[in-house]
Amino acid sequence: MGYDIERFVGYVNEGLLCSICRDVLQDPLQAPCEHAFCTACIHGWLLHHSNCPEDRQVIDVAVLRPLYRYMKNDLNRLQLHCRNREYGCEMVCSLESIDRHERECEYSQIPCSNAGCSVQVERRNLDGHLAVCEFRSRECPNGCGYTILSAEDTQHNCVAELRTELELLRSEMICRVEEAKHEMESRLDSQRRHMVQKESILQNEIEELKSQMSRMMSDVRSLMAAERQHRQELEQAELEKREL
Q1: For residue 89, which of 82, 120, 125, 206 is within the disulfide window of CB 3.0 to 4.6 Å?
Q2: Pseudo-torsion of CA 111, 112, 115, 117, nearest 10°?
Q3: Ranges of the chain with pLDDT below 70
């Protein structure tokens, strides 16, 4: 939608009006047939149509172009009232600078900055509202360190608040201790399983070594027996040699 033509001071050229909403062009685009539209208006139109709303020539988004420079300059020089005129703002400025003015206008309706407050006030009255807003917060004057809302002043009890805080801290500490305990137990259990596994592996290796040693001892005994047999045979051969 464009700017309400009723806000403008003096005559507005017909060529500076949107062909769809008939208000003064806002973020204008121009078709090849030279008809101009607000960006929002023509995009909305082309969702359901494929032609210019003025002369029915076929158009699409790809052929839309910015407004001619001279038309853009004429548009920017138009004078109009601030949208907050109904609240008392008497500012009249060019279309080119109206957005900047309205962002800073003292008569703009803005929300209260206090969480939970839904009141809308004029920017110029915001400080006064914040001073009395029931949702304003401040630090407890008794020194407990709590931030309290104005509406809670009569209900605030430093001792009760600190006791609640202490209980919360205690609960949090217990939870952390339990978590640390479970984590430590998990680690110990993991190490214990690892040690048992290593012990089993070592035990198997020891048994294997014992088996190998037993086989070696058996082989040694066999070799010693074979050596004695061989020595006896040599001695017998020596005796037979002497007899011969």
Answers
A1: 82
A2: -90
A3: 137-161
